[in-house]
Amino acid sequence: MLVEIEKMRRFDWSPFPIVQVQTPVGRTAVPWCGSPDAVLGRYDVEWAIDIEISWGLNARLAAEPGPAIFAGSHCVILRGRLGLTTDGAGVLDLDGSMILLDFVEPPPAEVDASWVQIYVPHRDVQLHPFEL
Fold this sequence. Notes:
Layout: E1 2-9, E2 18-23, E3 26-31, E4 41-49, E5 52-53, E6 59-61, E7 68-71, E8 75-84, E9 90-94, E10 97-103, E11 115-121, E12 125-129
Parallel strand pairs: 5-10
Antiparallel strand pairs: 1-2, 1-4, 2-3, 4-12, 6-11, 7-8, 8-9, 8-11, 9-10
């Protein structure tokens, strides 16, 4: 996904700088796993989620369709289409960016291909830049 870094700050709770990013589907702040000396601007990134997902707790059906990224009170909310794998994991299609999800227990089979929202604490979402 192509994002634009608008701001970069350091906080004691994170080993990585925290960046405010504008994406094609919303804005949020997350840890930046690229160069700490990165300049503001556009970067191609991959999203990584570093927690286990529990259906009904930090993942549920979305109230409305369509991809979105936005900040909650203490979390990042990612809305995308869920694809379930045969081994109980999942893939969130976030506007063409695929994010692997590790579920504690497999979600109900009927949510496969549904629009879902994932709620992740800011420190547990990371952006990894890459070159195309």
